[in-house]
Amino acid sequence: MTNMKKIALILSVCLLLIALVSITACTGSDKKPDTDKSPETKTEDNETMPEEPETGGTGACLSHKEEIVAGKAPSCTEDGLTEGKICSVCKTVIVEQEAIAKLYHTEVIIESISATCTEAGYTSGKKCAVCDEIIIAPVEIPALDHLESDWIIDKTSEVGADGLRHTECVRCSEIITTENFPAITEGHVHEGKEWAVVSPATCTAEGIKVLRCDCGVEIERASIEKTEHIEEITIGIAPTCMTTGLTDGKKCSVCQKILVAQQTIASKAHTEITMLGRAATCTETGSTDGKKCAFCSQITLAQLSVPPTGHSFADGACTACALAETYGVWIVDGLGNPISDVIVKILKGDELVKMYPYNGQYLPFELEDGEYRIELDLSQTGRDFVYDADSCVMSPEKRSVKIELRNKLSEPTSIFVGYPILADYQAYNVTSGSYELTLTPNDYTFIIFRPSASAVYTLTYVCDSELTVSYHGSSFFVQGEDLSGSSEAIAKYKNGLSVDVFPGNIGGDLVFAIKSESATSCILNIANAGDPGTRLEDEPWSPYLEDDATVSAQLSAPKEGTYTEIDLTDTSLKAVFNEKDGYYHLNSEDGPIIFIDLTTDSKYISSIQVICANQRMGTYIYDINGDVVEKRSYNELFHQYGMPSTKEEKVEQAIRVPLTEKLAEAIKTFGDKNSWWAEGSDANIFTKLLLGTPYNREYAWLLFCGYYAD
């Protein structure tokens, strides 16, 4: 067989193989297609063509092309669906869609309507603010009908003249009956037979009854004891992921007094749904999967960018996308992210052959075969990079070059570590990015990382030898520590560790130490890996207020006599809470009301106004399981009583208000937190001020308080 015939035969076989691959590419089948059974379509020229694969096919492409199948958010009436993925070519399901349970209703109160004597009312109820579904239906309250009073005398009877009297509804005052009653005779003696109710007793006030003579003259008057409260349910609200809820409570339907206070219910966890990421390609950025709440859309797990993989050439073509290999360059930072605004210079020997702008994509060159050297102009990147110039060489055997840029290390700074190490270490200041570090075997290399944003940061390394990466807190805490004993790996992450940086950490520094028994260098990568988890400390404070009506009553409490500060050295001192008026009294329930001074300087410390202006004053609220569910701020509580918001705001006179349970709790909480009266504590504010004079430790929290006395 001649050479030409051999070549022709080889070409024929190749064409046949290509045809078979094109037929089986989306079906994954290695069998010969059954042309008698395959569905067919006709072209305009009546040529027979195979039909496209149907949706939902189970075959597998040689390389699937992912397509997102949109999900559906759940509502309070319908289930939802997560996002899915299919192959846009063969319709194979890559990621199944999953059902998301219906959301909870967004509850709102249907306000109650009080019944009257003539018209029906309704109890309160609940409905969903989104779909209007009635959750708790209001119940009709029948009309109350009139409640008739005893006779009310309008005019007493006299000798020869009738009297006049009437009855009325004690609820609405509508007159029900009016009548005359007989005149009296000469010599009439007043005599009472039955008591008549002038004003009925309520749960807030005593009633009045009178004993009258038949002629209408009042003989005697007496009080009627107050009635019991009439309980009414205060309907609670279910929590959502955006708001806290409230338990049911009880109040009096007559006077509205709170009988059972509503308790805060912690907000619910988010209803998470997945946001599907996409795979990175040779040239396109991908993303990781993320999560968000189906109810409020808050991102609970941010999607992170995944750098392009770059071309991987073998046997003259990219193994991923089949791009033919040419002379070319791929430039990324140490974390794999493409870099733009670079000028690429191609040199042959010392002669400049060509210059190209590089903007983040693989850059091919049209060059004659030969050996070339690449130089980079990085001045327009706005970042201080370095790279290995010795590796930037192209040849017929190595046509494409991947250049990794590293952040340039600054000059090290000194960090002193005290006993028991007693050494002066050199530390490198770094931010996010990739760095090439020089190591000293069996010794520490310190890194001071200053985060610029709240995130989870991962620290990983590339090294031929095993390294130890440890976290040591801030540079301040490194002073005087035995690093070998105090090192702490916060969370292992591949070949390094990760650390959460919260909003309060921004602007500070975090110290890490790297140590190896034999390595003299390594690549250290510091990457932002997404948002950190939420912490209660970072959540906003909720106001801790008192009822407006109560505050109004407290502010109007009488202030008579001279104001005197409480003597904390008096060992007989007591603060007694009187439930009847809601105030603390000095030494007994009937003693002088204790007042808190909100604006003036006291004998011991500047006023609470100064404290509130300088730091948050509050406490944590726990549920029945002992878990913290909320942070309550006392600042608003003090401001509610008229305390200025800032130290600069002046008041014409002192603001002194009666000491309530909440105000007392606020003082105690803040003092306990700061160890103001703890025995043996350096923070005890009485230690130096009283110069050893004994004081009443149990009531030391009354340092802001006084009383009015004649």
Quick gist of this model?
By secondary structure, the protein is mostly beta strands. 10% of the residues lie in helices and 35% in strands. It has a 5-stranded mixed β-sheet, with no helix packed on it. A 5-stranded antiparallel β-sheet has the order 41-48-43-46-45, with no helix packed on it.
Descriptive keywords:
about 700 residues; about 35% strand; 5-stranded mixed sheet; mainly beta; 5-stranded antiparallel sheet; single chain; 8 helices
Structure, described:
With 710 residues, this protein is mainly beta. Helix content is 10%, strand content 35%. It has eight helices and 57 strands. It has a five-stranded mixed beta sheet with strand order 39-40-42-47-44, with no helix packed on it. It has a five-stranded antiparallel beta sheet with strand order 41-48-43-46-45, with no helix packed on it. The model is unreliable at 15-59 and 479-493 (pLDDT under 50).
